[in-house]
Specification:
This protein is an alpha/beta fold. Helices cover 36% and strands 30% of the residues. Strands 3-2-1-4-5 form a 5-stranded mixed sheet, covered by helices on one side. The radius of gyration is 14 Å and the shape is globular.
Amino acid sequence: MIVAKLSGGILTVMAIDHSVLRLVRSLELTEITLDEIAADLYPTFAYSEDSFGSRPETLLLCGFGDLAAEASRRFESELSAKVDCLPYRNAGLAGYLHSRNLKAVAA
């Protein structure tokens, strides 16, 4: 699985193989466009396939906001991978709590 998180002008790409985090890259984008994101994302897919012996089957997108639907269609077609989009921008603790309908409580 490949995870791509967009936060401001930073794209973080992670490769996960058999539940093990194998690669993390954080890249500063000059423009927040799908072409710019693809230029960093596609080599990660190739690297993962070469290094881990199989093509990633899933791409998880987080923080793509208004670009999510178009990114999902494009990357699913061009990468031949299932694309899932997290429905919230924050993939950290706040995002996890939100996904579980929990709230953080100050101690």
